[in-house]
Amino acid sequence: MRSNLVAAIVLIVVGLFLLASNLGWTNMNLGRLILTWWPVILVAVGIGLLFGRGK
């Protein structure tokens, strides 16, 4: 259940970033943002897997 919630939140956040970019509300480049912060995504996934194994 927790992984479904995390996946849903990630999809919502990515969708909001894309929508804001398409509507011209922000000039953020999502590709550049991902290229800069991809290691954080790996760390977050690893921490999630580590704490999820206790179930």
TrEMBL record:
Key words, A-Z: Membrane, Transmembrane, Transmembrane helix
A Pfam family this chain is assigned to: LiaI-LiaF-like_TM1
InterPro entries in the cross-refs: LiaI-LiaF-like_TM1
Occurrences of domain LiaI-LiaF-like transmembrane region (ranges): 6-50
Spans through the membrane: 30-51
Protein name: DUF5668 domain-containing protein
Organism: Stenotrophomonas nematodicola
Organism classification: Bacteria, Pseudomonadati, Pseudomonadota, Gammaproteobacteria, Lysobacterales
